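INTERNAL AUDIT FORM
Audit reference: QA-55
Scope: verify that the stored structure record matches its stored sequence.
Auditor: D.O.
Record contents follow.
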Amino acid sequence: VSPVKCICFNPVGDRFFVGDAKSGISVFSFDSITGQAKQLSRTQIFKNSIPITSISYSSWQSASSVKANPSLLVNVCGSNAVHLFN
């Protein structure tokens, strides 16, 4: 288990994303009625343990698609870059 460095909810509030100190992003589902959270997945962004310091969620709907296209904007400490994940 790695210490949490940042957290971000989606606008609906049924999912949240956690960035940790070992370059991992975990996705959780969240039930606002019961307060229960369930981990859905965890992705290791880099092989070395670089902390994820910021996560921002964005979603948009294009004219050619009926469903939203979610993206995560992620800042990783020491990488001198901002990363975008769909």
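Auditor finding: record pair retrieved intact. The chain has a mean pLDDT of 86.
Action required: none
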